[in-house]
Amino acid sequence: MSGSKSLKQRIADREVIVALRVGVTMGRAEVEAALNEKQYDMLYVEGQHSPFTEDQLTNFCLMAEELDIPVKLRIPHTYQTYLIGRYFDFGPTAIMVPEIEAEESVEEAVKFTYYLPKGRRSFGGPFRRGIATGKAPSGLHAYAAWWNEQAVLGIMLESVEAISNARRFVKPGLDFIAFGTSDLGLSLATAPEFPIRDTDECMRYVCDQVKDQVALGMAIPTEPDERQKYLDMGITIFQETLVPR
Question: What is the pTM of this model?
C-alpha cells in the first residue's frame, strides 16, 4: 500500500498495482500469511467462475478491511451491472464487470457504482466498506462524498467486438479496463475476418488508443518476470493467485 492515497487514486496515477486472487472461504490466518510473505495492493475474489454466497463475501470483506486491504470482486455476469450497488453493499472497494461489449453496460455500471450526484446507487447497508470499522465518515452526505472518491470500477474486454469498441467504453467514473485473454483468444478463432490475429496485438491496439484516458490491467495471473511487455504497452494492474486458475 502506498501512503494515504486511495486505491482509486493510485490506479489513476498509473502506479503498478498487484492483486492477489484468493478464495472467498479462505481464513484470516492464510490471508495474513500471504500478505506477510509479499506486498499486495488488493485481494481479488473471482465471482464469475467460482461459487460464493453473499454471507461469504460479506465476512471476507470485513476480514480484509480489518487487515486494511481492499477487495475487488468480479461479478458473475455482464447483465448484472444493475446489481453493482448491492455487491458494493457487501464490502468490496472494487468491482470488475466481465465480457463487456455494449456501451450501455458501462454506463449502467457507472450509474450503480456511485451515489448522487455522480451516479444513482441507493444509500444504505451496514456492511459497506468503512462502516463496521469506523474508517469511513458517518452521515449521509459525508459518506456518499467519501465513497465517490474511493470506489473502483473496472471492465473486461474479452471479444473482438469489445476490442473494436474500446474507445466508446471510456466513461467518467470508469477506473480501468482489463483484458481477458482466454475468451479473447476463442473470439479471435471464430472471427477470421478480424484484422488483428493475436491477443497481445489486440491489447496493444487498445492501449495505444486509451492508455492516456484510463488505466489498463491484466485479468489473468502473471509473474513479475512476465510483466515487462505489458508494462511497455501501458498496462499497470496485475494479479497473482493463491487458487487454481
Answer: 0.95
